[in-house]
Amino acid sequence: MTVLGRSALTRRNGFHVGTFSEHYKLEEVEMADQHNPKLDAEPQSNTEKDPDDWVTGDEPMTGAQASYLKTLSEQAHEPDAFAENLSKADASKRIDSLKEKLKL
To answer: Are residues 30 and 54 in the same domain?
Structure first.
C-alpha cells in the first residue's frame, strides 16, 4: 500500500485503485505542490514577451492587428504608421507606440 498525503491507495498493475474520494485527495495533494502563475502578485510577469522574441513574430500581422493599427494610426493622425505588409512583431511595436502617443 502506498501512502500519499492523507489517502492510502492500493497499487495494481501500475494504477492506483481506491475510492473516488481517495483519488480526489491524491489529486489535491499533487496540485498543491505545483506553482500556479494565476496567483502571482504580478500576473503579467509571465505573459509579456518582447515582440522581437516571438516565435511567430515574422509572420504577417493578424487581421485584428491590422484593424487596430489602422484605427490607431487614424486617431493619431499618422497614416504612415499603417502598412499592409507588416509582421506581427512590427505591428505590435507600432500599436504600442501609437497607444503611448494617444495615452491609451
So the answer is: no
